[in-house]
């Protein structure tokens, strides 16, 4: 089973985590056009590569961001939202 | 024990302990430490099993866990691998896959009709006429499969255990042992695993007649044994590779899941047979099987043998045979070059060596139970054809065969290793290893003993550096000289029976036929011929199959590639895999009470809920109607402890709710309750519930059971983004809840509390904190199942006490419990649509008429922007309450039946039920908005295709239909 590093609880087996989808910045809902909003809500890029993703450590209720390459399934960094200056390396 | 040799150095058998057992009704004796096969072979029993397809007699082939034609049963367990399983006192064994015993198998006639059964025969032959297929099916099913399942097999659950280490070494041959010691010397925690009962691998038996290597092994073993940080798992195989170095190690005692920081694969190589006619007769075996028989079990493989080889290994085997006292009638070398190192040595020992020759065919003894000779002729190594002009026959009672190796690379493949074909060793070797994976020894294309030892040290140093410690970077070992494997050790024969795959009796011509039929890709060929699909999973056949296909297509081997390697590497008992379920379920504190009172349970989310309480002999439908009537006429009580319950503490609590849900909460008064509805970003209805304000800075949220965990999770995610001044506490498990509802509910409750329950001081949609039966409770007045309803939330542990107090107080009012199925009917009678039941993943709030719950003028809430877009568009469907005609007795429409207008689909039924209280069929359905007004009539198409008329009415149903 894969391991994932929660920034609060350390490295844990994947079964303790819930995937929360790709992390995407919402457009400003007051200024964006309907088309821009619809694209944000409904369109996803399935192209493999480096993605920022939401992950949830279920036992502790911690949401965090994981930077993962969806082609190699390698996670390079995990951090709490807004704290991506602190590097947290995994698997090195 | 006629085939026993004098004592061998390092032998695995204990000659002081004799063991008695029976095989096929005959008594045999063995030494302790013998396998079933070695004991039988020592006694001269050569037919040990029958092949799968043609029921041909088979004996020892590999003695390395791949003799899949020699599967036996002890009457309880089946498909026991006789070549490796230790024989035990009193065993009563028979061969599987025979009809009437291994010696006179009645199904051996199939061998004589084998020309009528070409590859792909079953796929093609039995399709027409169709009506005969059931007959053929029963014939094929009888022939298929190995062994008989014993349905009285004892149910033995093996524990799953877990362990962790710095370095996991797979394979305890000279390479693996050296690597393990080197890693341990650097202070790492090392686990070494080997499928054999004893460590040492080929160092224990590949001796070329010189037993001095035993001392080298003893030194290595002593060194490993003296290292406290080396953990040995013998008699256990690494069954697969899972991400981040999780390796299940399987032994008799079950599965140990090893999590390693680095993995060194030193799993060695499987010896591959040369292919010639009758290479499957009992007595024809691999060179390494000969060596294992001699040195592990002190068994002479035969008395007068022929060695056929296509590499130098066969010469070493010949020397081992001589050492064991076997005469060698000839050594036949398929190569034109012979062996520079060994040809002269053997000639000096008086062995006749035929260079550039092959065994054209082995000759079966008259009863086909063994070998009585072999036809030998010249071999054209370039064209791969036998030159039969000067063929001659030599007598012998056994043939040892060596042709080369295939890497035991299953785990490397599973880990995503890039493999390339190395022509210097004629095998696939790792070219690009995943992070933390290392390969050493034969699996890495390194064959010479000194080189393998150095390769083990090199791999250990690589692993040590990977783990952040200092270690030298050694140069990679590279094989020099003659290849240990032959590129094409295959001898064609016009009459065939030159077996490539012993599991499935596949011959060279089967591959040719498969390619002719168009199955000339290795994955397709595997499935059409079934090569590598037997119990040995191609360990001795895949490499030859790849070579044959490469030749057929005139391509280099690397262009053919390999089939996909998947876990498990070796067949693993289901009993090892089975065990406890890990799907957690949650029980309320009233679960025992429900059980004692005859509840039928249902799974809702993770919870077990009481669905209804049938009286003896009562149907589900009757039980639900009885319970519902009680709520309408007097009072009912339901365990709602599984409801999601979340506390929002802090000054920003109301603000949070306003951003998270669609409604307004900042002006909500303490002591009052408001409806909450959650949307997703696209404006789809996700869930709803009730927010009760207990204080300025405390809301108590109750939501449905099934979605509670997901809603709480989303609340946490939103808070992570918004960083408001508040705390979220999931009290779903800490608080239980009881809903008491019905005309008598208030009166019953009033006997247990001092709280003023008058409608003026405790109106609808309000919350009070008070004692009920001396239990501190949060009381919420709701109208979910009936107009008069009270949800009592209290600590989970006190719920049974509270429940019993209410039951006792309600006795004279005929208060009775009702379950969650009844609750569904009651809420329908009340006209409440339920998210997830009456909505789906595309439903927006306008479609269920929930505009009233949405405050669009708020600055922000989840889904708001999407609603502004949706609001501009015409509605496509609308959820409406409907009734069927009075006294309707036709086919009952079901949930999801379509609402149709001619050929057009207008919508579907989401909830429908008969209500005994109303004596009507009521429900919700989606219809086109033009039909949403009360009085509109639409058609429901039921399962039989008939149309049923339904009329839109107003909710609550109980008010519209009963005026209540």
From TrEMBL, chain A:
Pfam families: SoxD. One of its GO terms (molecular function) is sarcosine oxidase activity. Transmembrane segments: none annotated. GO terms for biological process: tetrahydrofolate metabolic process. This is Sarcosine oxidase delta subunit heterotetrameric. It comes from Methylotenera versatilis (strain 301). The lineage of its organism: Bacteria, Pseudomonadati, Pseudomonadota, Betaproteobacteria, Nitrosomonadales.
